[in-house]
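Q: Predict the assembly, please.
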Amino acid sequence: MAVAEARKRRGPSFVVRAAVACVLTVAAAGAVASAQSPKPLPSAADILRTMFAAPALVDYEGTKVISTVQGTRAETVTILEAYKRLGRLRLEFLSPESVSGRLIVDDGLSAWQYEPSLHLVIRGPSFVQGTAHPERATEVLRRYRVSVLGREAVIGRDTVVVALAPGEAGSNRRLWIDEATGVALRTEERDAGGEIVYVSYFSRVSYSLNLPPALFRFRQPAGAKMLNFYVSGDAVTSVNELQARAGKDIILPARLLNRFAFRDGRVARHGAFTAAAAAYTDGVGVVTVFQTPISRMAFPNVGGPVATRTGRARFLDVGYFRVLVWQSRGMNYAVLGNMPQAVLIAIADELAASR
Amino acid sequence: MIHARIVRQLSAYLDGELDPSVSRAVAAHLAECDACRHELAMLRQVKGLLERLPEVEPPQAVWHGLRARLAAEDRATVTILDTMRAAFRRPAVAAVAAMVVLLLVALPLVKGRIDRLQAADIGVDLYVREHALQSVVDPFVDRAYLGLLIGDANLALAGARRTPGEEP
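A: Predicted assembly structure:
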């Protein structure tokens, strides 16, 4: 009886205490181990799919900084950007002074631009695509060597860093994609020498499930002058149709560099000026070829001279895009795209040879 | 000879104005065609009635009125022509007229040249704008940067080009 009382006072036996200690030790070790082991990185395909699905899933507003190097010149622009599903956009330009105060509101059908210094509103077609295109990841993976470099924090959010090296033509890009939302919080583009020529990043961003629609409705300021700039004619999807509209003198190959396929074309008009515009794509990037007879347009004195097999040519870097213009056999040509200069020159040479 | 053509020639046949060969053909047709014979009889009757009408002289007042109006129109024509001739004999008026003609000829040429130079000035802006709109489908394109490019191109097309703010 005395022995039993003594056991009750001492509590559980040594064996029981040892077993509990073991269980606790194993659990603690597991917890530490799981805290230390990094979360596996998503595959390139998965993170790209998340990125291309974001426009249909996420509303956001933030402050964006864009820096571009255009030849010897650099420009940094700061913008308040708000986006609402599916394809509504509001941009308020903060700096530099030359662009400060500009407001652009795009409701998915039309875009309004207000220039306060001129008290002028310019209305044109929408330039926002708000639908999800996760299938584009496949095309990107085919055209680029894509690698996931790791995970980095950008403005306090976890991002996956993806590097894209072009297979044939294109620019080297690096993207910091918000792992939770798919929004690219930072984008860099580098030239062949590895120098950054374009960078865009959010210095602040907040996500919302539902930004107010009123933010994406344009209200014309009282007394402001309004201009309508719908300069593009209806698009046609066949080379023959475009030739019928623009004239037989224009060159319209079905493919460029055996890589970019004809997508669609139109005749652009502004006042007395008209130009045949043919858009080509490799599934990711877009190349547009413009043609105008020299009887309607003198040679544009833009950018700097550049040597091509076609003769007189000039090259202009507008930041994200590059422009090559040249004259040949009574026509002014221009090719625009987000490709290095060498690719645009190769397109010009191919067009000249097909004449 | 067909019936319709004979009908048109009956009046001339009646007045003896047809060539002998045509006249013979009409006579041969009349021998076979009741309708044409009836038409000829009607014409003959009308002609007879007209021949029996007395000749009437118009009143003198009609002739006076007509002559006065014709003379007035002649004077007006002479006055305008004389005035124009006199004006063109003045060197200043002749020079102005020559300039007007020259302007009418040169204006389309000058306008074409101005349009051509203006196209060179804004052409690349139109290209950039159109290409930016086409690039909406580029999965990596930055919406805000598209807005900047399209906005700048719009301004240039509106005649108020922006000078980009260069980094210091």
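The domain at 2-53 of chain B is CATH 1.10.10 (Arc Repressor Mutant, subunit A). Chain B touches chain A through 49 residues (CB under 8 Å).
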